[in-house]
Amino acid sequence: MALVATSIVVVAVIIGILTYSPYYSISPTGTTMSAIIGPSPGILEMQEVDIPTPKYGQLLIKVAYAPVNPSDVYYALGEYNLPGATKDYPISVGLEGSGVVVGSGGGPLSHLYAALETRVGFATFGYVYSRNKLAIVASHVCRSWSEYVVINSLDVIPLPSDVTLLQGSSPCVNPLTTVSLLEVAKSGGHTALVNTAASSSLGLMLLRASKAYNITVICVVRGEKNANKILEVQPDIDRKLIIRSDLPDFATTLESVVAEVKATIAYDCVNGELASTIYDAMPDVSEVYNYGSLSGQETPGQLLAKSDDAKKPFKHFHLKAYLDDGGILTKLKIVSIARPMLASELATDVAQEIPFNSEEALGYIHEYYKHQTSGKVVLKM
Q1: Which residues pair with 134 in a beta bridge?
Q2: Which of 68, 146, 280, 352 is the most buried (most CB within 10 A)?
Q3: What is the separation of C-alpha 138 from the centre of its chain, rounded to a whole number of angstroms?
Q4: How far is 158 from 168, CA to CA, in rounded Å?
Q5: CA distances in angstroms from 154 to 105, 121, 130, 133, listed in the order given
Q6: Residue 41: C-alpha distances to residues 75, 77, 299, 330, 346 (Å)
Q7: Which phi and psi (to 5°) does residue 51 adopt?
Q8: What is the 3-state secondary structure of 150-186?
Q9: How far apart are CA 280 and CA 41, in angstroms?
Q10: Is the preceding omega at residue 175 within 30 degrees of 0, hence cis?
Q11: CA angle 331, 334, 340 (to 5 degrees)
Q12: Where residue 140 falls among pLDDT bands split at 50, 70, 90?
């Protein structure tokens, strides 16, 4: 049996090298699939669309799970405010997911993944970034809130054997962003940082992974419940490093702790007024990055004007832009650091599974937009 399996893999790879012919280990049933589409701002529909066909160097992945990230929901409903972004409709939705490679458009690596029916995590970024301009691009068939996706063979993460498809359903956005943010801090010589929404999935990942970088994290949270989540993850954390933004002395407390631990870089994913408070609390020589808009608010104009400040710049961090600008070596480095931590420091705690092909899915997404829940929720295909 092992010899037969090996022979199949060898033949598939040889075919991939010698030809541009597609290869399917499991052919899709039918020619169409279900996908969640946004035909216009604020509207989501379950539609039947054509199953995408992989080109040379691409994979066809049968999606198993796709998470409902806050950025997905804001993006899907037309509320994700990214400076300079343009968006055309209709759009398909879903930044990442996990699944099994069932087809190849040609090429040795693609054929190998398909022949082995490799379990992978993937990201389906819906934007391109060039010359400091962000464009959200329309896509009718190839985002993770659909039954199949097409991804470049170099853009997937083969899941470790100790990570299930469910556990690996959020392998890119949060884990790769976490590692990238820590790498930016490390490369800049920073030894302490500020992070907002620190009790979020990404915030907890960053806190756990920061130990490997020997970087102190000041955790900005809202409410006692979120403060307690930090203590659950890191019971030995110095309590002064957990700062509640809902308390009246927030700004002065933050400024004091920032000075005490010598934090010189800050990451904010809430935006709006909180971004301004974070910026004001940082020392005169420091860096402040925004990497999200959980509040749904836009970046204050006075901060946008600081993008070129020589001593204290305010910048926007986009994962895809960071990886694209760094090239293939940066991408391989970030993935190689993140992959072995997917079951530990970068693990995602899944709180709920929602059936994909159901009215419940669309209803839940709208409810999530109104009342964000704690714990990761995934769509089960």
Answers
A1: 129
A2: 146
A3: 19
A4: 10
A5: 13, 12, 20, 24
A6: 9, 6, 20, 35, 33
A7: -65, 130
A8: EEEHHHEEECCCCCCCCHHHCCCHHHHHHHHHHHHHH
A9: 34
A10: no
A11: 130
A12: very low
Place of tokens 């010598």: 262
Question: What is the structure's pLDDT at 19?
Answer: 56
Please, are residues 251 and 281 in contact by the beta-carbon 8 Å criterion?
Answer: yes
For residues 292 and 97, give the distance between their C-alpha atoms in angstroms, rounded to a whole number: 19
Query: What DSSP string describes 192-238?
Result: EEEESSTTSHHHHHHHHHHHHHT-EEEEEESSHHHHHHHHHH-TTS-
Q: The tokens of 54 are what?
A: 């992989």
Could you tell me if 250 and 244 are in contact, meaning their C-beta atoms sit under 8 angstroms apart?
A: yes
Q: How far apart are CA 163 and CA 143, in angstroms?
A: 22
Amino acid occupying residue 294: L
Is a pLDDT exceeding 60 seen at residue 159? yes
Q: Phi, psi (5° rounding) for residue 240? A: -65, -15
